[in-house]
Design brief:
Blueprint lengths: L1 H17 L23 E3 L12 E2 L4 H13 L4 E6 L3 E7 L6 E9 L4 E8 L8 H14 L3
Antiparallel strand pairs: 1-6, 2-6, 3-4, 4-5, 5-6
Length: about 150
């Protein structure tokens, strides 16, 4: 009986809030990574606003080796699919476990600085309950443990 209530609550209350808007805001134009919207469902190392800001990833050595290492790391993550690998850009899609919402995960390499900028954003809804920030920090933890 209680599980029935939880499912009805999720479908009746939470789902409409999460699905209020959509799109696919990825890409390299006009800048390296698109800005986060005002909604709290996006984080980016290129966004100076505190509610969106995360640190970029750092690496030493050859940037192409770092890119290949990051692609391998992403390919091993559950519910994550690498969609695009360009010279200095990676785009992956991450699906939520229950409702299968798609979030966009992007990386942009700045070889001269040894930096990888990151952006993780929900395609739909207003709030992501911190999922994108936790995802970026988990990738950072995994990144620190790989060579």
């Amino acid at each position: 009986m209680r599980s029935d209530f939880v499912v009805r609550y999720a479908l009746g209350c939470v789902l409409p809030l999460l699905m209020c808007c959509g799109g696919n805001p990825t890409g390299l134009a006009p800048g390296p990574l698109n800005a986060c919207p005002d909604s709290p469902n996006c984080v980016s190392s290129m966004d100076p606003r505190e509610k969106h800001a995360v640190e970029p990833f750092r690496y030493a050595g050859d940037w192409t080796a770092a890119r290949d290492r990051l692609v391998r790391l992403l390919a091993e993550m559950t519910r994550t699919r690498v969609v695009t690998v360009q010279e200095k850009y990676i785009h992956a899609e991450c699906r939520s476990r229950i409702f299968r919402f798609v979030d966009d995960l992007e990386f942009y390499f700045v070889p001269e600085a040894g930096v990888i900028h990151v952006r993780s954003a929900a395609r739909t809804g207003y709030s992501d309950f911190g999922v994108n920030r936790r995802r970026v920090e988990e990738i950072r933890r995994l990144w620190a443990g790989t060579k």
